[in-house]
Amino acid sequence: MTNALDFTDKTVIITGAASGIGRATARLLADNGAKIVIGDVDDQANETVDLITHGGGTAQFVKTDVTSAADVQNLVQTAVDTHGRIDVAFNNAGILPPVARFVDQTEKDFDKTIAVDLKGVFLSLKYEIEAMLKTGGGAIINTASVAGLIADPDMAPYVAAKHGVVGLTRSAAYDHGKDGIRVNALAPGLVETGMTEVWRKDPEKWDAVTSNNFLNKAASPEEIAGMVLFLASDLAGFATGGVYPVDGGQTAR
Ligand SMILES: NC(=O)c1ccc[n+]([C@@H]2O[C@H](COP(=O)([O-])OP(=O)(O)OC[C@H]3O[C@@H](n4cnc5c(N)ncnc54)[C@H](O)[C@@H]3O)[C@@H](O)[C@H]2O)c1
């Protein structure tokens, strides 16, 4: 019997894999045989590549700002030139705007958040789908958030962008299901990464945000990566247009 979680000979693009959820996912997929192509603005992505290649895996880093169409096209083209095709993409790059009440949010922070968290996913989907159409399909997973399903306090631009990621996911899944392309979104709750360090430093705040779910803790990046592995695999062959909370139950109450 074949192992559906074996990604040998599959090429996977991952954006935002210099750290956090993206790095953990890159490592997990590489451990399962995938060839990883990372797009990130941060040169720390080289460390992710080293972690994978020192373990015997295959990975490369293509410096990419997901807000730039030219950069995203270059990322996809590099993956295709190197490996002949892309099978899976994980559109995960993201930023958090400064935490502030709605009325105190600035136009600048709104534009920046929408550019990275929403337009970045649009551009990634567009060029990945273009490449997948030439090779008969693939699986794409976008990182939304619980903030794509419900309002998190004091982060209106992020909530808007992540709700938008859910919309892009459903649209892309609708338009390209017949082309053999599955598109799903993850909705992580609180995850212990650089993004949430600002809260971790404040014990009172950390207590409040970790008691927001049934498990009373934050997820490790690895606990999010497992869902990406599943959605990217043939075991999820009928899953498309879905939004999958991995949130300790935060949105279930
Ligand atoms: N940490 C959480 O609690 C949490 C919860 C829900 C969703 N998310 C989402 O998970 C994703 C990963 O975040 P994380 O928690 O691992 O944080 P992180 O800060 O460790 O990772 C974000 C990654 O995105 C990259 N990035 C930022 N701007 C970019 C750009 N313009 N172009 C390319 N890459 C860029 C960063 O360099 C970094 O590698 C994000 O989309 C985030 O919104 C995080």
UniProtKB/TrEMBL annotation:
<dbReference type="InterPro" id="IPR002347">
    <property type="entry name" value="SDR_fam"/>
</dbReference>
<comment type="similarity">
    <text>Belongs to the short-chain dehydrogenases/reductases (SDR) family.</text>
</comment>
<dbReference type="InterPro" id="IPR020904">
    <property type="entry name" value="Sc_DH/Rdtase_CS"/>
</dbReference>
<protein>
    <submittedName>
        <fullName>SDR family oxidoreductase</fullName>
    </submittedName>
</protein>
<dbReference type="Pfam" id="PF13561">
    <property type="entry name" value="adh_short_C2"/>
</dbReference>
<dbReference type="InterPro" id="IPR036291">
    <property type="entry name" value="NAD(P)-bd_dom_sf"/>
</dbReference>
<keyword id="KW-0560">Oxidoreductase</keyword>
